[in-house]
Design brief:
Heat Shock Protein 90, 3 domains, seven-stranded antiparallel beta sheet, 11 helices, disordered C terminus
Length: 500
């Protein structure tokens, strides 16, 4: 079992909880900021209403000594003239800051109000004016012996006598601070509980989501321990990434099973193929040792040559499987390669008519030696199955170099055209091993063609036999695979071989 700190479930839980904590913190700060701003606007509105109420009375000619400045729920009121003198103030207002008047608010205002003021106390039938503008400021005032912060609203009013004064009215910020503090305490109290719930839910959900992964891991461990590649991991019924992982894992196991099965079959077939010439050699050598006159040197040499060719083919397949690249790719003149291969081939035991049709001078990029091996294997296969005629064609078609080898033999049945390129597969099992070949030639041919980025197919020839068609990219186009990409070639479904 993994350690807790190394667990995906633990890391997911911690990460989700941390993200939620940050989100809640940001949301809480935002809510508190909006709440504070909203309450501040409410205080501004209260202060403005109080200031406009007093200003309206002054504008209608109400004298200062008749103003009731103490029935505003402990809201400080201060009236200041244009010169900055405090003309009136609330009875309980002491020290104040944030208004246009001095700190000695109440006593000076009371004296002025008691002595009277000709301008503000005189009745005048002409109406005054209240300004539409309002100014807000934060200040501090002592009301009834208690100092607190206030939001002040300043509204100008013109009396009927024509004098302009400023009315300051304040609204306490105590309620705002208390409300914000209460909300903050509630959030702090609920945050740990909410985070605990998030962590628990995340832990449970993650455990349920990762349960199929644990089942896959356990099954893979059992497969590894038992070596049974026929087993498969369980695929959950969901359509999420875990189900995709399980499906891909099963596909990998299936490919690995096929590869191992193919490898075991290849080893068994190779051992069987090697056993025949080795047994023949041993028999001939034992006979020669006992009866030197009966030793057939020609037959012995033929068996050695056959064994040599088989070993070379097996070595080449092993190199292709390993992805060996003995030489860099070069531009190969395919027309010259066809002519050279036809010139050097022996006449053979049967008299076969070989026709060659070369159009132009197509070139392809790859290994000349391995491309010559492709043509040689196709010609060997055609000679083995032809009744009397072989036709070789070379040209360019649809941007590709096309090589065709056809014979007039029995051809390949359609159902077997996906088998003939497999290793050690023959369609003519009734024939002798000597006549039928080892069954590796077409497998090597297919691997070499795929390694050059080409394709090879088999169909019906006009002569009635088999027609093998190889398509290779031109020299100006880099091949999809290098001239030695055996392992990449192994990835495609490969037809199998007749007998070569």
């Amino acid at each position: 079992m993994p350690r807790l700190v190394d667990s995906v479930r633990a890391r997911t839980t911690v990460g989700a909880t941390a993200v939620v904590a940050v989100a809640l913190a940001v949301a809480g700060l935002t809510v508190m900021s909006l709440l504070r701003a909203n309450l501040a606007r409410h205080a501004d509105l209260q202060a403005e209403m109080s200031a406009r109420e007093i200003a309206a009375k002054l504008a209608t000619g109400t004298p200062l000594h008749r103003l009731d400045l103490d029935d505003t729920e402990e809201r400080p009121i201060q009236i200041v003239d244009a010169s900055g003198r405090v003309r009136a103030a609330s009875e309980q207002l002491g020290a104040v800051s944030g208004t246009g008047g001095s700190a000695a608010a109440r006593r000076g205002a009371a004296t002025l109000a008691g002595e009277g003021d000709d301008d503000l106390d005189e009745e005048d039938p002409s109406p005054g004016h209240v300004s539409d503008d309002v100014r807000h400021a934060t200040g501090r005032a002592t009301v009834g012996g208690r100092a607190d912060d206030y939001r002040f609203a300043a509204v100008e009013a013109t009396t009927p006598a024509g004098e302009t004064v400023t009315v300051y009215a304040g609204a306490a910020l105590t309620a705002t601070r208390d409300a914000v503090a209460a909300v903050g305490r509630a959030m702090l109290a609920g945050l740990p509980l909410l985070l605990a719930v998030v962590a628990a839910v995340t832990w449970l959900v993650t455990r349920r989501a990762l349960r199929p992964v644990a089942a896959i891991r356990a099954e893979l461990a059992e497969i590894t321990a038992s070596g049974d590649l026929t087993r498969r991991v369980p695929v959950p019924g969901t359509r999420d990434e875990v189900a995709g992982l399980a499906g891909t894992t099963n596909e990998t196991l299936a490919a690995l099973e096929r590869s191992v099965t193919r490898q075991r079959g290849f080893v068994a077939d190779a051992a069987h193929e090697l056993r025949t010439p080795i047994a023949s050699l041993r028999t001939q050598l034992e006979v020669g040792a006992a009866h030197p006159r009966l030793l057939d040197v020609a037959e012995l040499a033929a068996d050695v040559v056959r064994l040599q060719h088989l070993a070379a083919d097996l070595l080449l397949l092993a190199r292709l499987d390993a992805g060996a690249d003995p030489a860099p790719a070069v531009a190969v003149d395919m027309a010259e390669l066809v002519r050279e291969e036809l010139r050097r081939r022996p006449a053979g035991a049967r008299a076969l008519a070989v026709e060659a049709e070369v159009a132009g001078a197509p070139r392809t990029l790859g290994s000349r030696t391995r491309l010559a091996r492709v043509l040689a294997n196709l010609l060997d296969n055609a000679e083995r199955h032809a009744a009397g005629r072989i036709r070789v064609g070379l040209g360019a078609q649809e941007g590709a170099t096309v090589l065709r080898v056809a014979d007039d033999g029995a051809g390949v049945p359609p159902d077997d055209r996906e088998r003939i390129f497999e290793r050690f597969v023959r369609l003519d099992e009734a024939r002798s091993r000597d006549d039928g070949g080892s069954g590796l030639g077409l497998a090597i041919t297919r691997d070499l063609v795929l390694a050059h980025g080409g394709t090879i197919t088999v169909g019906d020839a006009p002569e009635g036999g088999a027609l093998f068609e190889v398509r290779l990219p031109p020299a100006g186009t880099p091949p999809a695979r290098t001239a030695s990409g055996g392992r990449e070639a192994r990835g495609a479904a490969r037809p199998r071989e007749v007998s070569t």
